[in-house]
Automatic annotation (TrEMBL):
InterPro entries: P-loop_NTPase. It comes from Streptomyces huasconensis. This is Terminase.
Length: 520
Protein backbone atom coordinates (compact mmCIF):
# COMPACT_ATOMS: atom_id res chain seq x y z
CA UNK A 1 0.00 0.00 0.00
CA UNK A 2 1.54 3.30 -1.09
CA UNK A 3 1.01 5.74 1.79
CA UNK A 4 3.32 8.51 0.59
CA UNK A 5 2.65 11.20 -1.99
CA UNK A 6 4.29 9.39 -4.92
CA UNK A 7 1.98 9.97 -7.91
CA UNK A 8 0.37 7.03 -9.67
CA UNK A 9 2.00 5.83 -12.87
CA UNK A 10 5.09 7.51 -14.32
CA UNK A 11 5.68 11.00 -15.74
CA UNK A 12 5.69 11.61 -19.47
CA UNK A 13 9.08 11.85 -21.25
CA UNK A 14 8.75 15.64 -21.50
CA UNK A 15 8.09 15.91 -17.75
CA UNK A 16 11.30 14.42 -16.31
CA UNK A 17 15.05 14.07 -16.77
CA UNK A 18 14.69 10.57 -15.36
CA UNK A 19 14.61 8.64 -18.63
CA UNK A 20 17.98 10.04 -19.73
CA UNK A 21 19.43 9.47 -16.26
CA UNK A 22 18.29 5.85 -16.24
CA UNK A 23 19.93 5.22 -19.61
CA UNK A 24 23.14 6.89 -18.40
CA UNK A 25 23.23 4.81 -15.20
CA UNK A 26 22.74 1.57 -17.10
CA UNK A 27 25.62 2.50 -19.42
CA UNK A 28 28.20 3.67 -16.88
CA UNK A 29 27.44 1.94 -13.55
CA UNK A 30 27.85 -1.78 -12.75
CA UNK A 31 26.16 -4.15 -10.33
CA UNK A 32 28.33 -4.06 -7.16
CA UNK A 33 27.72 -7.59 -5.82
CA UNK A 34 25.76 -10.82 -6.11
CA UNK A 35 25.52 -13.19 -9.06
CA UNK A 36 25.39 -10.30 -11.52
CA UNK A 37 28.39 -8.38 -10.11
CA UNK A 38 30.15 -6.44 -12.85
CA UNK A 39 27.18 -6.41 -15.21
CA UNK A 40 25.33 -3.23 -16.17
CA UNK A 41 23.36 -1.66 -13.34
CA UNK A 42 19.61 -2.17 -13.49
CA UNK A 43 16.92 -0.45 -11.45
CA UNK A 44 13.89 -2.44 -10.30
CA UNK A 45 10.52 -1.15 -11.57
CA UNK A 46 9.80 0.51 -8.21
CA UNK A 47 13.24 2.12 -8.18
CA UNK A 48 12.68 3.32 -11.75
CA UNK A 49 9.42 4.93 -10.74
CA UNK A 50 11.09 6.73 -7.84
CA UNK A 51 13.92 8.00 -10.07
CA UNK A 52 11.49 9.23 -12.74
CA UNK A 53 9.45 11.23 -10.23
CA UNK A 54 12.45 12.51 -8.29
CA UNK A 55 13.85 14.00 -11.49
CA UNK A 56 10.46 15.36 -12.62
CA UNK A 57 10.62 18.96 -13.83
CA UNK A 58 8.27 21.87 -14.30
CA UNK A 59 7.70 23.51 -17.71
CA UNK A 60 10.47 26.03 -16.93
CA UNK A 61 13.00 23.28 -16.19
CA UNK A 62 12.96 23.68 -12.40
CA UNK A 63 12.44 20.70 -10.12
CA UNK A 64 8.94 19.52 -9.31
CA UNK A 65 10.23 18.28 -5.92
CA UNK A 66 12.92 20.05 -3.90
CA UNK A 67 13.80 16.95 -1.83
CA UNK A 68 12.76 13.32 -1.40
CA UNK A 69 12.36 10.56 1.16
CA UNK A 70 12.37 6.85 0.44
CA UNK A 71 10.76 4.94 3.32
CA UNK A 72 10.82 1.21 2.77
CA UNK A 73 11.16 -2.05 4.71
CA UNK A 74 14.53 -3.22 5.94
CA UNK A 75 16.40 -4.98 3.13
CA UNK A 76 14.30 -3.52 0.31
CA UNK A 77 17.34 -2.00 -1.42
CA UNK A 78 17.39 1.59 -0.24
CA UNK A 79 21.16 1.89 0.10
CA UNK A 80 22.02 0.64 -3.44
CA UNK A 81 19.53 3.08 -4.91
CA UNK A 82 21.01 5.88 -2.81
CA UNK A 83 24.50 4.96 -3.99
CA UNK A 84 23.37 4.99 -7.63
CA UNK A 85 21.87 8.48 -7.16
CA UNK A 86 25.14 9.70 -5.61
CA UNK A 87 27.02 8.61 -8.74
CA UNK A 88 24.39 10.15 -11.02
CA UNK A 89 24.70 13.45 -9.16
CA UNK A 90 28.49 13.28 -9.35
CA UNK A 91 28.86 12.42 -13.04
CA UNK A 92 25.53 12.10 -14.81
CA UNK A 93 23.22 14.45 -16.75
CA UNK A 94 21.26 15.43 -13.64
CA UNK A 95 20.54 19.12 -14.26
CA UNK A 96 18.24 20.63 -16.86
CA UNK A 97 20.05 22.11 -19.88
CA UNK A 98 17.50 22.78 -22.62
CA UNK A 99 14.66 21.34 -24.69
CA UNK A 100 15.55 19.41 -27.85
CA UNK A 101 13.81 19.68 -31.23
CA UNK A 102 11.17 17.15 -30.10
CA UNK A 103 10.30 19.06 -26.95
CA UNK A 104 12.13 16.64 -24.66
CA UNK A 105 14.33 17.81 -21.79
CA UNK A 106 18.10 17.43 -22.09
CA UNK A 107 20.25 17.04 -19.01
CA UNK A 108 23.78 18.15 -18.23
CA UNK A 109 26.29 17.31 -15.48
CA UNK A 110 26.84 19.50 -12.44
CA UNK A 111 29.83 21.78 -13.16
CA UNK A 112 31.33 21.38 -9.68
CA UNK A 113 29.70 18.34 -8.09
CA UNK A 114 29.97 18.14 -4.31
CA UNK A 115 28.09 15.03 -3.17
CA UNK A 116 27.93 14.33 0.55
CA UNK A 117 26.93 11.08 2.25
CA UNK A 118 25.58 12.20 5.62
CA UNK A 119 25.38 10.17 8.82
CA UNK A 120 25.61 10.75 12.54
CA UNK A 121 28.93 8.82 12.63
CA UNK A 122 31.46 8.08 9.89
CA UNK A 123 31.20 4.32 10.32
CA UNK A 124 27.51 4.57 9.43
CA UNK A 125 28.47 5.85 5.97
CA UNK A 126 30.63 2.81 5.21
CA UNK A 127 27.86 0.71 3.68
CA UNK A 128 26.85 3.45 1.25
CA UNK A 129 30.47 4.29 0.38
CA UNK A 130 31.25 0.58 -0.16
CA UNK A 131 28.27 0.38 -2.51
CA UNK A 132 29.44 3.45 -4.43
CA UNK A 133 32.94 2.03 -4.83
CA UNK A 134 31.52 -1.31 -5.96
CA UNK A 135 29.36 0.38 -8.61
CA UNK A 136 32.32 2.39 -9.96
CA UNK A 137 35.27 -0.02 -9.69
CA UNK A 138 36.05 -1.49 -13.12
CA UNK A 139 33.01 0.28 -14.53
CA UNK A 140 32.85 2.26 -17.78
CA UNK A 141 32.56 5.40 -15.63
CA UNK A 142 35.93 4.77 -13.99
CA UNK A 143 37.74 4.80 -17.34
CA UNK A 144 35.69 7.42 -19.18
CA UNK A 145 35.67 9.99 -16.37
CA UNK A 146 39.12 9.22 -14.95
CA UNK A 147 38.15 8.49 -11.36
CA UNK A 148 40.27 8.12 -8.25
CA UNK A 149 38.18 5.73 -6.13
CA UNK A 150 39.50 5.92 -2.58
CA UNK A 151 38.16 4.40 0.62
CA UNK A 152 36.71 7.66 1.90
CA UNK A 153 36.62 9.91 -1.19
CA UNK A 154 35.77 9.48 -4.87
CA UNK A 155 37.26 12.24 -7.01
CA UNK A 156 38.84 12.98 -10.39
CA UNK A 157 42.42 11.88 -11.11
CA UNK A 158 42.99 15.05 -13.13
CA UNK A 159 42.50 17.21 -10.07
CA UNK A 160 39.26 18.63 -11.43
CA UNK A 161 37.17 19.86 -8.49
CA UNK A 162 34.34 17.66 -7.31
CA UNK A 163 33.94 14.66 -5.03
CA UNK A 164 31.78 12.13 -3.24
CA UNK A 165 32.67 11.98 0.43
CA UNK A 166 31.10 11.10 3.77
CA UNK A 167 30.02 13.72 6.26
CA UNK A 168 29.28 13.13 9.93
CA UNK A 169 28.06 15.26 12.80
CA UNK A 170 30.80 17.54 14.03
CA UNK A 171 29.07 20.54 15.50
CA UNK A 172 29.62 23.82 13.72
CA UNK A 173 32.43 22.50 11.51
CA UNK A 174 29.78 21.51 8.96
CA UNK A 175 28.47 25.05 8.57
CA UNK A 176 29.50 26.79 5.37
CA UNK A 177 29.71 23.75 3.09
CA UNK A 178 28.01 24.05 -0.28
CA UNK A 179 26.97 20.55 -1.36
CA UNK A 180 25.20 20.10 -4.70
CA UNK A 181 23.59 16.89 -3.47
CA UNK A 182 23.31 15.18 -0.12
CA UNK A 183 22.36 11.63 0.83
CA UNK A 184 20.99 11.05 4.31
CA UNK A 185 20.75 7.34 5.03
CA UNK A 186 18.68 5.67 7.78
CA UNK A 187 17.40 8.93 9.28
CA UNK A 188 15.18 7.06 11.76
CA UNK A 189 18.45 6.70 13.71
CA UNK A 190 19.11 10.46 13.62
CA UNK A 191 17.82 11.43 17.07
CA UNK A 192 18.55 14.08 19.66
CA UNK A 193 21.01 11.96 21.65
CA UNK A 194 23.40 11.69 18.69
CA UNK A 195 22.88 15.18 17.32
CA UNK A 196 20.87 13.97 14.34
CA UNK A 197 18.23 16.75 14.13
CA UNK A 198 20.86 19.50 14.43
CA UNK A 199 23.02 17.81 11.80
CA UNK A 200 20.03 17.50 9.48
CA UNK A 201 19.26 21.20 9.82
CA UNK A 202 22.90 22.07 9.09
CA UNK A 203 23.00 19.93 5.95
CA UNK A 204 19.67 21.32 4.84
CA UNK A 205 20.81 24.93 5.32
CA UNK A 206 23.98 24.25 3.35
CA UNK A 207 22.01 22.74 0.45
CA UNK A 208 19.54 25.60 0.44
CA UNK A 209 22.35 28.01 -0.46
CA UNK A 210 22.40 26.62 -4.00
CA UNK A 211 18.86 25.35 -4.54
CA UNK A 212 18.44 27.77 -7.41
CA UNK A 213 21.19 25.83 -9.20
CA UNK A 214 19.35 22.56 -8.56
CA UNK A 215 20.90 21.32 -5.30
CA UNK A 216 18.73 18.84 -3.38
CA UNK A 217 18.80 16.02 -0.86
CA UNK A 218 17.39 12.51 -0.56
CA UNK A 219 17.00 10.51 2.63
CA UNK A 220 16.11 6.91 3.31
CA UNK A 221 14.46 5.50 6.38
CA UNK A 222 12.60 2.61 7.89
CA UNK A 223 9.37 3.43 9.70
CA UNK A 224 10.33 5.50 12.73
CA UNK A 225 9.48 5.18 16.41
CA UNK A 226 7.26 8.21 17.20
CA UNK A 227 8.68 8.28 20.74
CA UNK A 228 12.15 9.26 19.49
CA UNK A 229 11.70 12.60 17.67
CA UNK A 230 13.98 11.40 14.88
CA UNK A 231 14.75 13.24 11.65
CA UNK A 232 12.56 10.66 9.90
CA UNK A 233 9.62 11.85 12.00
CA UNK A 234 10.47 15.53 11.52
CA UNK A 235 10.43 15.08 7.75
CA UNK A 236 7.31 12.91 7.70
CA UNK A 237 5.35 15.49 9.70
CA UNK A 238 6.69 18.42 7.68
CA UNK A 239 4.31 20.69 5.82
CA UNK A 240 6.67 20.40 2.84
CA UNK A 241 5.63 16.75 2.53
CA UNK A 242 1.98 17.46 3.30
CA UNK A 243 1.85 20.15 0.61
CA UNK A 244 3.66 17.99 -1.95
CA UNK A 245 6.87 20.01 -2.23
CA UNK A 246 8.97 17.06 -1.02
CA UNK A 247 8.53 13.64 -2.61
CA UNK A 248 7.68 10.91 -0.09
CA UNK A 249 7.71 7.31 -1.36
CA UNK A 250 6.42 4.87 1.24
CA UNK A 251 5.16 1.31 0.77
CA UNK A 252 3.57 -0.29 3.85
CA UNK A 253 2.31 -3.77 4.55
CA UNK A 254 -1.38 -3.85 5.49
CA UNK A 255 -1.70 -5.78 8.73
CA UNK A 256 -3.20 -5.08 12.13
CA UNK A 257 -1.18 -5.79 15.25
CA UNK A 258 -3.69 -8.41 16.39
CA UNK A 259 -3.09 -10.37 13.16
CA UNK A 260 0.67 -10.57 13.54
CA UNK A 261 0.45 -14.27 14.52
CA UNK A 262 -1.61 -15.16 11.44
CA UNK A 263 0.78 -16.74 8.90
CA UNK A 264 -1.27 -15.82 5.82
CA UNK A 265 -1.76 -12.23 6.98
CA UNK A 266 1.94 -11.83 7.79
CA UNK A 267 3.08 -13.27 4.45
CA UNK A 268 0.66 -11.09 2.50
CA UNK A 269 1.74 -7.95 4.37
CA UNK A 270 5.42 -8.72 3.81
CA UNK A 271 4.86 -9.16 0.07
CA UNK A 272 3.06 -5.86 0.02
CA UNK A 273 5.80 -4.04 1.96
CA UNK A 274 8.70 -5.47 -0.06
CA UNK A 275 7.04 -4.96 -3.44
CA UNK A 276 9.33 -6.03 -6.28
CA UNK A 277 12.38 -6.67 -4.07
CA UNK A 278 12.65 -10.26 -5.31
CA UNK A 279 15.68 -10.94 -3.12
CA UNK A 280 13.68 -10.52 0.11
CA UNK A 281 13.25 -13.82 1.97
CA UNK A 282 9.51 -13.59 2.59
CA UNK A 283 9.23 -17.14 3.97
CA UNK A 284 12.17 -16.66 6.32
CA UNK A 285 10.82 -13.35 7.59
CA UNK A 286 7.39 -14.92 8.08
CA UNK A 287 8.87 -17.68 10.26
CA UNK A 288 10.84 -15.16 12.29
CA UNK A 289 7.79 -13.00 12.99
CA UNK A 290 5.58 -15.98 13.88
CA UNK A 291 7.94 -17.83 16.18
CA UNK A 292 10.56 -15.39 17.52
CA UNK A 293 9.24 -13.99 20.79
CA UNK A 294 12.46 -12.14 21.71
CA UNK A 295 11.60 -9.12 19.52
CA UNK A 296 8.66 -6.80 20.27
CA UNK A 297 5.88 -6.82 17.70
CA UNK A 298 6.29 -3.07 17.31
CA UNK A 299 9.81 -3.67 15.97
CA UNK A 300 8.48 -6.09 13.33
CA UNK A 301 5.86 -3.53 12.35
CA UNK A 302 8.46 -0.84 11.85
CA UNK A 303 11.27 -2.71 10.13
CA UNK A 304 9.47 -5.39 8.11
CA UNK A 305 5.96 -4.01 7.50
CA UNK A 306 7.25 -0.41 7.34
CA UNK A 307 4.51 0.75 9.71
CA UNK A 308 5.13 3.53 12.21
CA UNK A 309 4.95 1.97 15.66
CA UNK A 310 5.97 3.03 19.12
CA UNK A 311 7.81 1.04 21.77
CA UNK A 312 5.70 -1.41 23.73
CA UNK A 313 5.97 0.59 26.97
CA UNK A 314 4.35 3.64 25.44
CA UNK A 315 1.33 5.04 27.27
CA UNK A 316 -0.71 5.69 24.15
CA UNK A 317 -0.30 4.07 20.74
CA UNK A 318 -0.27 6.21 17.63
CA UNK A 319 -3.32 4.45 16.21
CA UNK A 320 -5.24 5.04 19.45
CA UNK A 321 -4.31 8.71 19.51
CA UNK A 322 -4.99 9.19 15.79
CA UNK A 323 -8.47 7.73 16.29
CA UNK A 324 -9.26 10.75 18.52
CA UNK A 325 -8.37 13.26 15.80
CA UNK A 326 -11.25 15.54 14.83
CA UNK A 327 -10.69 18.30 12.28
CA UNK A 328 -14.33 19.37 12.23
CA UNK A 329 -15.93 21.95 14.52
CA UNK A 330 -12.83 23.99 15.46
CA UNK A 331 -12.49 25.73 18.81
CA UNK A 332 -13.83 29.27 18.70
CA UNK A 333 -13.52 32.35 20.93
CA UNK A 334 -16.25 32.34 23.54
CA UNK A 335 -16.37 28.55 23.84
CA UNK A 336 -16.62 27.12 27.33
CA UNK A 337 -13.31 25.45 28.15
CA UNK A 338 -11.28 23.96 30.96
CA UNK A 339 -7.51 24.40 31.16
CA UNK A 340 -4.51 22.38 32.33
CA UNK A 341 -1.16 24.01 33.14
CA UNK A 342 2.19 22.33 33.81
CA UNK A 343 5.06 24.72 34.42
CA UNK A 344 8.83 24.58 34.62
CA UNK A 345 11.60 27.14 34.69
CA UNK A 346 14.61 25.56 32.97
CA UNK A 347 14.59 21.81 32.43
CA UNK A 348 11.21 20.72 31.16
CA UNK A 349 8.69 22.38 28.90
CA UNK A 350 5.92 24.65 30.14
CA UNK A 351 2.51 24.13 28.60
CA UNK A 352 -1.05 25.38 28.61
CA UNK A 353 -3.71 23.07 27.14
CA UNK A 354 -7.42 23.70 26.82
CA UNK A 355 -10.34 21.35 26.37
CA UNK A 356 -13.83 22.34 25.25
CA UNK A 357 -16.49 21.41 27.76
CA UNK A 358 -19.20 20.28 25.38
CA UNK A 359 -17.16 17.67 23.44
CA UNK A 360 -13.80 17.17 25.25
CA UNK A 361 -11.77 18.50 22.33
CA UNK A 362 -8.18 19.30 23.30
CA UNK A 363 -6.10 22.13 21.87
CA UNK A 364 -2.89 23.95 22.75
CA UNK A 365 -3.05 27.44 24.22
CA UNK A 366 0.69 27.83 24.67
CA UNK A 367 3.92 25.87 24.89
CA UNK A 368 7.43 26.99 25.83
CA UNK A 369 10.20 24.49 25.07
CA UNK A 370 13.92 24.94 25.35
CA UNK A 371 15.40 25.26 21.82
CA UNK A 372 18.03 22.70 20.84
CA UNK A 373 20.86 25.24 20.70
CA UNK A 374 19.77 27.37 23.64
CA UNK A 375 22.43 28.48 26.15
CA UNK A 376 22.73 26.73 29.49
CA UNK A 377 21.06 29.62 31.31
CA UNK A 378 17.92 29.52 29.15
CA UNK A 379 14.71 29.99 31.12
CA UNK A 380 11.03 30.01 30.30
CA UNK A 381 9.71 33.46 29.43
CA UNK A 382 7.47 33.99 32.45
CA UNK A 383 5.93 37.16 31.02
CA UNK A 384 4.94 35.29 27.86
CA UNK A 385 3.25 32.62 29.99
CA UNK A 386 1.45 35.29 31.98
CA UNK A 387 0.26 36.92 28.76
CA UNK A 388 -0.99 33.58 27.40
CA UNK A 389 -2.99 32.90 30.57
CA UNK A 390 -4.53 36.38 30.43
CA UNK A 391 -5.33 35.93 26.74
CA UNK A 392 -6.99 32.59 27.48
CA UNK A 393 -9.37 34.14 29.99
CA UNK A 394 -10.14 37.00 27.59
CA UNK A 395 -10.90 34.83 24.56
CA UNK A 396 -12.71 31.88 26.16
CA UNK A 397 -15.17 31.18 28.94
CA UNK A 398 -12.78 29.39 31.27
CA UNK A 399 -14.84 27.36 33.72
CA UNK A 400 -12.06 25.48 35.54
CA UNK A 401 -8.27 25.88 35.55
CA UNK A 402 -5.95 23.23 37.05
CA UNK A 403 -2.27 24.12 37.51
CA UNK A 404 0.64 22.10 38.85
CA UNK A 405 2.13 24.43 41.52
CA UNK A 406 5.93 23.77 41.70
CA UNK A 407 7.89 26.92 40.67
CA UNK A 408 4.64 28.75 39.89
CA UNK A 409 2.75 29.00 43.19
CA UNK A 410 2.98 32.80 43.35
CA UNK A 411 1.74 33.12 39.76
CA UNK A 412 -1.09 30.66 40.32
CA UNK A 413 -2.16 32.53 43.45
CA UNK A 414 -2.30 35.77 41.48
CA UNK A 415 -4.29 34.12 38.66
CA UNK A 416 -6.80 32.91 41.26
CA UNK A 417 -7.18 36.45 42.61
CA UNK A 418 -7.52 37.97 39.12
CA UNK A 419 -9.87 35.41 37.62
CA UNK A 420 -11.62 33.97 40.67
CA UNK A 421 -10.64 31.51 43.34
CA UNK A 422 -13.49 29.29 42.25
CA UNK A 423 -11.98 29.05 38.74
CA UNK A 424 -8.22 28.58 39.31
CA UNK A 425 -7.05 25.64 41.43
CA UNK A 426 -3.82 23.86 42.29
CA UNK A 427 -3.41 20.26 41.15
CA UNK A 428 -0.31 18.57 42.57
CA UNK A 429 0.83 15.99 40.01
CA UNK A 430 3.31 14.52 42.52
CA UNK A 431 0.42 13.10 44.58
CA UNK A 432 0.22 9.63 43.05
CA UNK A 433 -3.30 8.58 44.03
CA UNK A 434 -4.98 11.55 42.41
CA UNK A 435 -2.68 11.55 39.38
CA UNK A 436 -3.08 7.81 38.76
CA UNK A 437 -6.84 8.24 38.67
CA UNK A 438 -6.55 11.22 36.31
CA UNK A 439 -4.23 9.34 33.94
CA UNK A 440 -6.55 6.33 33.87
CA UNK A 441 -9.61 8.49 33.18
CA UNK A 442 -7.79 10.20 30.32
CA UNK A 443 -6.76 6.94 28.70
CA UNK A 444 -10.24 5.46 29.14
CA UNK A 445 -11.77 8.52 27.49
CA UNK A 446 -9.39 8.11 24.55
CA UNK A 447 -10.17 4.40 24.21
CA UNK A 448 -13.96 4.74 24.23
CA UNK A 449 -14.08 7.76 21.94
CA UNK A 450 -15.00 10.36 24.57
CA UNK A 451 -11.89 12.43 23.82
CA UNK A 452 -10.93 14.51 20.79
CA UNK A 453 -7.98 16.60 19.68
CA UNK A 454 -7.28 18.96 16.78
CA UNK A 455 -4.19 17.12 15.49
CA UNK A 456 -1.55 19.54 16.80
CA UNK A 457 1.76 17.74 16.25
CA UNK A 458 3.25 19.15 19.46
CA UNK A 459 0.56 17.63 21.66
CA UNK A 460 0.78 14.39 19.67
CA UNK A 461 4.54 14.26 20.16
CA UNK A 462 4.28 14.72 23.94
CA UNK A 463 1.48 12.17 24.29
CA UNK A 464 3.40 9.56 22.28
CA UNK A 465 6.60 10.34 24.20
CA UNK A 466 4.95 9.38 27.49
CA UNK A 467 5.66 5.93 28.93
CA UNK A 468 4.02 4.26 31.89
CA UNK A 469 5.55 3.74 35.31
CA UNK A 470 3.93 1.49 37.84
CA UNK A 471 3.49 2.73 41.41
CA UNK A 472 1.53 1.07 44.23
CA UNK A 473 -1.53 3.15 43.34
CA UNK A 474 -1.48 2.20 39.64
CA UNK A 475 0.13 3.62 36.48
CA UNK A 476 1.60 7.08 36.10
CA UNK A 477 3.03 8.64 32.95
CA UNK A 478 6.65 9.73 32.80
CA UNK A 479 9.54 10.36 30.44
CA UNK A 480 11.43 7.31 29.18
CA UNK A 481 14.41 8.37 31.32
CA UNK A 482 15.12 11.25 33.73
CA UNK A 483 17.53 12.94 31.31
CA UNK A 484 15.49 12.25 28.20
CA UNK A 485 14.98 15.16 25.79
CA UNK A 486 11.61 13.72 24.78
CA UNK A 487 9.19 15.89 26.69
CA UNK A 488 5.73 14.89 27.96
CA UNK A 489 4.61 18.13 29.62
CA UNK A 490 1.78 18.79 27.17
CA UNK A 491 0.46 15.30 27.89
CA UNK A 492 0.38 16.19 31.59
CA UNK A 493 -1.41 19.45 30.73
CA UNK A 494 -3.98 17.50 28.72
CA UNK A 495 -4.61 15.14 31.64
CA UNK A 496 -5.14 18.10 33.98
CA UNK A 497 -7.40 19.82 31.44
CA UNK A 498 -9.64 16.78 31.15
CA UNK A 499 -9.83 16.54 34.94
CA UNK A 500 -10.74 20.22 35.07
CA UNK A 501 -13.49 19.64 32.52
CA UNK A 502 -14.95 16.78 34.56
CA UNK A 503 -14.99 18.87 37.72
CA UNK A 504 -16.50 21.86 35.91
CA UNK A 505 -19.32 19.71 34.57
CA UNK A 506 -19.84 18.06 37.96
CA UNK A 507 -20.10 21.54 39.46
CA UNK A 508 -22.93 22.38 37.10
CA UNK A 509 -21.03 24.89 34.96
CA UNK A 510 -22.37 23.45 31.74
CA UNK A 511 -25.93 22.42 31.02
CA UNK A 512 -25.80 18.87 29.61
CA UNK A 513 -28.87 17.78 27.73
CA UNK A 514 -29.69 14.20 28.43
CA UNK A 515 -32.15 12.08 26.50
CA UNK A 516 -35.09 11.04 28.60
CA UNK A 517 -35.28 7.30 29.12
CA UNK A 518 -38.57 5.78 30.14
CA UNK A 519 -38.61 2.26 31.52
CA UNK A 520 -41.54 -0.08 31.49
Amino acid sequence: MQTGNLPAGVPKPNETLGYGIIRWAQKFIVQPDGDTAGESWKFTPEQLRFVLWFYAINPDGTWKYSAATLRRAKGWGKTPLLAALAIVEFLGPCRFSHWDAFGLPVGKPVPLPVVQVGATALDQTEQTMDMIRGMLSESPAEAVYGLDIGKMVVQFKSGKPGSIKPKATAGRTNEGNRPTFCLMDEVHHWVGSNGGPDFYQTLKRNIEKTTKAGSRWVCTTNAYNPNEDSVAQIIHESEMVAQGYWLYDCLEGSIALEDIRDADAVRAALKEAYGDASWADIDGLTRTILFDRTTPDSTYCRFFFNQIAESSDGWMSKSEWDACFDEDDPIKPGDQIAVGFDGSIRGDSTGLVGVRLRDAKLFILGVWERPENAPDDWEVDVLAVEAAVAETFRHYRVEWFYADPPYWQENIGRWAIEHGEDYVFEFWTNKPTRMVQAVERFRTAAMVGDLRHDGDHRLTRHVLNAVTREVPQGLLITKDSPRSKRKIDLAVCAVLALEARADAIADGRMQIRRSRVVGW
